[in-house]
Specification:
Radius of gyration: 20 Å
Organism: Planctopirus ephydatiae
Protein name: NHL repeat protein
CATH architecture: 6 Propeller
Number of domains: 1
GO molecular function, one term: zinc ion binding
InterPro entries: 6-blade_b-propeller_TolB-like, TAT_signal, TAT_signal_bac_arc, TRIM-NHL_E3_ligases
Largest sheet: 5 strands, antiparallel
Keywords: Signal
Oligomer: single chain
Length: 371
Amino acid sequence: MALPISRRDALKTACVATAGLISGAPFVHAQSKADSQPLTTGQGDYQYEVIHNWAQLPSEFTWQTTQAVVVDKNGFVYLNHTGDFNKKNHPNVFVFDQDGKYVRSFGQYFQGGAHGLELREENGEEFLFFSNPDPVQSIAKTNLKGELIWERFAPMESGIYPEGENTLPQRVRSGEVPRKGVGGPNRYKPTNIAFLKDGDLLVADGYGSNYIHRYTKDGDYKLSFAGAGPSPGKFSTNHGLALEARSGKEEILYVTDRSRNTIQCLTAEGKFVSLIDGFQKPCHVDFYKDLMLVPELQGRVTLLDGNNKVLAYLCDDHQNVNAGKVNRGDAKQWAPGKFVHPHDATFDHDGNIIVSEWVTTGRITLLKKMS
């Protein structure tokens, strides 16, 4: 059941409750007319060629559950994966050119816990921002070469976390505390980061407390809002978040409440505005011109217009995924032109879409714009 829409008239079109719109959109699926023809997905002005396994690693590296993707101003693509906790020297971040060719890699210090990845330009220089659940349990900022600028652990001044939560990652890394057994609703397990116009950061503790923490651009803690609960402005799994980036729109914060199949729309201060529902476990949000992109863990990516009406479902296989007919660890079950578990997606500078999937062998798909 959808939560009530805000009465604020100025924000009515910023985030529209779209259960009917989503469920009523035409079914869109990838198709191949013949073996010699490319796989395609989409409809109307939003049709894409589907290129699975677009980004290929050198033989000395292997994907270990791909997670997030960003594109820098020069078109280079940055992809991360969880990484194997026991493979200390294996990179977490891989950089590819616009043709999907490997360029370089870095980020061994996030091994075993890498998750969210965002990029921001500051005074002409671009930086990467990482959000890492357990066993890393930190947020971090690096330059594009992976050189660490700062790392922050659980914000104890928030009063949310148990004593010692901010030192737990170091104890896990050193072997003092076993990696297993660090779960719980009051643990710090950040999943994604968003940027405010004043330079501040918002961090979603999506696998932990479900609070959203606000930091200065230098990583200094300021305040917290949201948290776990059933009421508007509270979350079950606030996995991803992003500030409205489409022109002429109010400053709305979109937060995916993944376990409830919804996106909540808040002010930058955390006040509930409205709800979009009808998703299949939405993971994150990205923008390009007047478009909003939502990767959904249960087998599809959704494209919405400036009023948050569905334009297309891309590579949709959510029915088979929900029915348990597709195994994330068995590539033989993955249908060509269909997604399994999209975890993150972003636009490149030409409007193509790059999708990272939460599958054990890793998979990066390019949706190349056709029209």
